[in-house]
Amino acid sequence: MASATTTITAERENYLNASYGFRSWLLTTDHKRIALLYLISITFFFFIGGFFALLIRLELLTPQGDLVQADTYNKLFSMHGQVMIFFFLIPAVPAVLGNFLVPMMIGAKDLAFPRINLLSWYLFIIGGGLMLYTILVGGVDTGWTFYVPLSTAFLGTHVVLAAVSIFIAGFSSILTGLNFIVTIHRMRAPGMTWGRMPLFLWSNYATAIIQVLGTPVLAISLSLVGLERMFHLGVFNPQLGGDPLLFQHLFWFYSHPAVYIMILPGMGVVSEIIPCFSRKRVFGYEFVALASIGIAVLGFLVWAHHMFVAGMSVYAGMIFSFFSYLVAIPSAIKVFNWTATMYKGKIYYSTPMLYAMGFIGLFTMGGMTGLFLASLGVDVHVTDTYFVVAHFHYIMVGGMVMAYLAGMHFWWPKITGRMYPEAWGKLAAMTIFIGFNLTFFPQFILGWTGMPRRYHAYPPEFQVLNVLSTAGSTVLAVGYLLPMVYFLWALRYGKEAGDNPWGAAGLEWKTASPPPTYNFEETPVVTWEAYNYDELPKEVPVVG
Amino acid sequence: MFPNFPIWPVRAAVSASNLDALFIFLLLVTGTVTIMIFILVTVFALRYRHDLVDKATPILGSTALETTWSLVPFGIFLIFFVWGAVLYFQERTPPRNAMEIYVVAKQWMWKLQHVDGQREINELHVPVDRDVKLIMTSQDVIHSFFVPAFRLKQDVLPGRYTTLWFHAIRPGTYHLFCAEYCGTQHSGMIGSIVVMNPVDYEAWLSGGGGEGSLASTGQKLFQQLGCGSCHRSDTQGRGPNLVGVFGKPVLLEDGRTVTADENYVRESILNPGAKIAAGFKNIMPSFQGVVNEEQLLSLVAYIKSLQGSQPSGLVSNRPAVPNAPAQSKAK
After folding, report:
1. Cβ of A346 and B19 within 8 Å?
2. How far apart are CA A492 and CA A513, in angstroms?
3. Residue in A with minimal Cα distance to B33
4. How far apart are CA A321 and CA B25, in angstroms?
5. B58 in a domain, yes or no?
6. pLDDT grade, residue B323 (50/70/90)?
7. N or C: which end of chain B has fewer CB within 10 A?
8. Do residues B186 and B266 both lie within one domain?
9. Structural domain includes residue B161
10. Is B141 part of the contact surface with chain A (CB cutoff 8 Å)?
11. How many structural domains comprise chain B?
12. What pLDDT band is residue B207 in, cutting at 50, 70 and 90?
């Protein structure tokens, strides 16, 4: 990292060349360096989780369970889920882009608690290290959901170890959320009112609320699983007098809002990119901002829609179905506003914009299929099938990973001071979009025709669609490797970016690229509204 | 149409026809809106491409539009919600006089028991055009009884009974899947539902069985365990008379009233102290670990078969609780 920036930094000091050596990184309290530490860590976990996913898809090429044994397959999908959710998706945007951008976007020198920020990365690494250890000593086969009494009384794998690793990583998430809430409340530059904040901050603020209020419930649920497993505390296991549905209520009380932890920051990224490459203010700023808060609040009232066939009361099902439709409205509002933002704009097809448009498409399909699942009668048929698998991958991979990559391309020049090769960026964006649809669209049909999820072997009539899906996943894998390669290449060989290559609004673009350690030479004073593109150059300076 | 490439599951029950109508409606509405958004994004991207436009037109927003695209989806969502909820309610409300079949799930097989005594494993024979109700429990972890051709699914839990009912309309053999991940051989916990014409079904019924009805098995067990020494068929027993109790409200010692359904009978056998019928003492021992799930089901079937004459209203065979009916009305 340091050697890559030497040519640029001959001119001035920045956060990358301010100091050198392992100590200067491992003991840093600079939010930008911590963001990079997170970036390296979660990229590592993304490729581990992706490797498991590829093995899953290879196994499902044929109806027989022939590539790996049943127990191995169960471990593969369990660890794919746990690694991807807790060690990639949840930290992805907040801990990398959020860490880097939240202080810069409000004109602050750092987060409110820089040392707690570093602590949160260490907790993540301890949790992640334990997860790696769990994988190396044989893995865990609970699914990512740890359903009882299977996890507490029937499985012989490293359930407690995996639970402890997620428990610890959860505190890293809580601390990041806490830091963001305090920072956004207390450290905005003069003139940076709530109504002038970039939407990325609104969505990260909403996310932080969920992280702080929801994650402790996950910690409680996993602790109880551990206690019941080790000491036969009869909380969940009916043979000990417990109630297995209680676990599902506790687990989903966190894990449904966790879906919004994963998607809300992505929505924030897209809300930055579409105005920039349409050269105009986001349509309906207030509505997009409040929609984030609406999602965070309503998101806490829908958890039991994961339990419509679990044996819950019919009337409880109806209430949760109704709230699930309510929470869909703020998401719909956002999609309509992003689309309307493009109306009468001046639209550039730069790489971040391609990813953002891909996000709109895939997120819309994920959201629309969510309406099927919120409908009680339909859910009974398609829940626990590949329909659900396809639905949440459209939201979390189609939506969130597209948004994350959109953000990585958008802010890469700011983070590293270098441009990536634009043509490769566009190629990767399109490869990922096509590969994603090839992989996951067939799974909607598989689920609707009845193929249950988490099946190691399946009836032969489902084979054609599974082959299609596996073929698509290889395209998707190539798509994900491409940015990895050209980003690394760009570190050394990329063109110098300049301070504001996109002509973008936002305080982070008013400082150098890469920024100095304390972000701004002097504290900025904000006198303009967010996304004041009518006062900025009418064109994007760098056109690929 | 394409035997190796199905895009629509077989429709073999009333519930499947009902659901398909809603599913098609959802497909049409969400499909239209999705395509509309795709077209808008594409058209805007092409029409307002940077080299075709000199400068973007600043537009801040429109409260009228925001209100429209909040309220119109809300209205449409209400239709999805009500339609889905009505189907769910129907699916979860078994008709009276449905033919009952008992299901015990375990890692990794389905055990199915007909009231006439036939037992099956991983295969369930049912007649077409009859209401069939499944009363299900699990011996170990959570499983889920899933029949795609009926569009029905219900989790099967340890420690309680859940139910599922269907009305098959088409003879044939259909997949039965376990849909809740249950450990190593989860994907091997599959079977089939054989829907038969009434004539074939009668022939199948007469071919199997032999052990006598499930209720008679339960009766034998009831005697072996000595239940009858307290649960006598008169009013002199130390426990309640069980004749005619099933399906009726029962007044409890603490003043609550519960319905004597399968879950109540089950709980009263395994954990008798949990809900004590009014006028009785907590003296019954627990049968946890003494009877297994299948024996429990036969006891439930036996108690269900005791349809004697009891006074209507609250079941209480003790004259010591004269005002029981009045209390129930007060609730």
Report:
1. no
2. 15
3. A368
4. 18
5. no
6. very low
7. N
8. no
9. yes
10. yes
11. 2
12. confident
Interface predicted TM-score of the whole assembly (ipTM), two decimals: 0.92
Which candidate from A147, A284, A332 shows the least CB-CB separation from B61? A284
Residue B31 distance to chain A (closest CA, Å): 8
> How far is residue A219's CA from residue A167's CA, in Å, rounded to a whole number?
5
Q: Which residue of A has its CA nearest to B37?
A: A339
Establish how many alpha carbons lie within 13 A of residue B51's alpha carbon, considering only the half-sphere containing its beta carbon.
2
| Rounded CA separation B74/B68 (Å) | 10
Per the CB < 8 A criterion, the answer to whether B180 and B155 are in contact is yes
Q: Which amino acid is at A71?
A: D
Instruction: Kindly state whether residue B275 falls inside one of the protein's structural domains.
Output: yes
Please report, for the domain that includes residue B314, its CATH number.
Answer: 1.10.760.10
Residues B134, B246, single domain; the answer is no
| Nearest neighbour of B55 by CB, restricted to A339, A456, A538 | A538
Closest CA to B327 of B273, B263, B250: B250
Name the phi and psi angles at B123, rounded to 5.
-145, 135
pLDDT at B325: 41
Task: Please report the pLDDT score of residue B210 as a whole number.
Answer: 59
Whether B21 and B31 map to the same domain: the answer is yes
**Are A335 and B37 within 8 A, CB to CB?**
yes
Half-sphere exposure in the Cβ direction for A277 (13 Å, CA): 28
Residue B331: CB atoms within 10 A of its CB come to 9
Last residue of a domain, one of B212, B245, B278: B212
Cβ–Cβ under 8 Å, residues B90 and B83: no
B201 and B111 fall within a common domain: yes
Tell which of B172, B191, B212 closes a domain: B212
| pLDDT tens string A223-261 | 999 999 999 998 999 988 899 999 999 999 999 999 999
Residues B221 and B196 in one domain: no
Q: Where are the domains of chain A?
A: 3-535
- Look up the CATH architecture of domain A3-535: Up-down Bundle (1.20)
In a shared domain, residues B104 and B146:
yes
The DSSP code for A519 is: S
- Residue range(s) defining the domain that contains residue B221: 214-330
Looking at the structure, do residues B219 and B208 belong to the same domain, yes or no? no
Instruction: Tell me whether residues B22 and A378 touch, CB distance under 8 A.
Output: yes
Integer Cα distance of A200 and A269 in angstroms:
6
Name the DSSP class of A437: H
In the three-class reduction of DSSP (H, G, I as helix; E, B as strand; rest coil), residue B258 is classed as strand
Task: Give whole-number Cα distances, B212 to A419, A420, B127, B222, B310, in Å.
Answer: 80, 78, 20, 15, 27
Q: Per-residue pLDDT tens for B27-61?
A: 999 999 999 999 999 999 999 999 999 999 988 89
Same domain? For B224 and B319 the reply is yes
Q: In angstroms, rounded to a whole number, what is the distance separating the alpha carbons of residues A435 and A57? A: 13
Q: For residue A28, how far is the Cα from the chain centroid? A: 24
Name the residue facing B144 among A309, A343, A464 (closest C-beta).
A309
B69 domain-assigned: no
Out of A154, A328, A461, name the one closest to residue B183 (CB): A154
Give the domain CATH number at B194: 2.60.40.420
C-alpha to C-alpha distance for A455 and B130, rounded to whole angstroms: 32
Taking alpha carbons only, the member of A421, A408, A488, A362 closest to residue A38 is: A408
Q: Which residues contact A95 (CB under 8 A, 6 or more apart)?
A: A35, A38, A42, A120, A121, A124, A172, A176
Is residue A382 predicted with pLDDT exceeding 90?
yes
Name the amino acid, one letter, at B294. Answer: E
- Which residues of chain A does B154 touch, with a Cβ-Cβ cutoff of 8 Å? 309, 311, 380
From residue A260, give the alpha-carbon distance in Å to each of A163, A203, A322, A351, A506: 21, 10, 18, 25, 25
Q: Contact, A26 vs A76, CB < 8 A?
A: no
Nearest to A4 by CA among A494, A372, A476: A494
